[in-house]
């Protein structure tokens, strides 16, 4: 038995994330950087929605009202944003929290990532939504903004329009959010490798690679039994 053999099936990498979470932006950048360092491993990414603000109106709310509700004092929020901005620089992310005027519901943005994944464009669209919101201050709950992101990512225009105008995959977003909570996940980001090994937070690539190695070993052992 070769205990170091790579698994025959792809290692499934589940990204539990929210598109209005700056740590998710940082964390997914680090995860994808780790994956690029391991071209020897076949990995299949699944984007799993998590709703940090499940009661957010679909129209969103003003940024100032959201900050007041979530943080209480603006000074506290400013200190946190400064810390996040510093970490973001290390991942090539230029956070511009000052440009954000609306805190949106992320349901429709999650729906678009799900739709894009069917065209193998999930990663591209998720990153574009993160950039639009955190670096450009766009309202990623707005139909026109999401349609523009989909179009720039090369998604078929007519199908994307019809999808965004519908309620398709809305139940899926809420089901994935519920699934995460049932698994004991109470925040984002969280990454699950090989369906069994989970780690929370925006971890460094080296930490994520260690977990990947554990998942590979576990899967290899299962296949050899």
Overview of this protein structure:
One of its GO terms (molecular function) is oxidoreductase activity. InterPro entries: DSBA-like_thioredoxin_dom (IPR001853), Thioredoxin-like_sf (IPR036249). Residues 13-210 form the DSBA-like thioredoxin domain. This is DsbA family oxidoreductase. The protein has 225 residues and is an alpha+beta fold. 52% of the residues lie in helices and 12% in strands. It is built from nine helices and six strands; from the N terminus they run βαββααβαααααββα. Strands 2-1-5-6 form a four-stranded mixed sheet. Helix 1 packs across helix 9 and helix 6 packs antiparallel against helix 7 (157-165). The protein is globular, with a radius of gyration of 18 Å. 36% of the residues are buried.
Can I get a quick summary?
Pfam families: DSBA (PF01323). One of its GO terms (molecular function) is oxidoreductase activity. By secondary structure, the protein is α+β, with helices and mostly antiparallel strands.
How helix-rich are the residues, as a percent range? 40-55%
Mean pLDDT: 94
Element-by-element helix/strand order: EHEEHHEHHHHHEEH
What is the CA-based Rg, rounded?
Answer: 18 Å
Number of strands: 6
Strand residue content = 5-15%
Would you identify the regions where 5 or more consecutive residues have pLDDT less than 50?
none
Count of separate DSSP helical elements: 9
Instruction: Report how far the terminal alpha carbons are from each other.
Output: 9 Å
Shape: globular
Query: The biggest beta sheet, please?
Result: 4 strands, mixed
Order of adjacent strands in the largest pleated sheet: 2-1-5-6
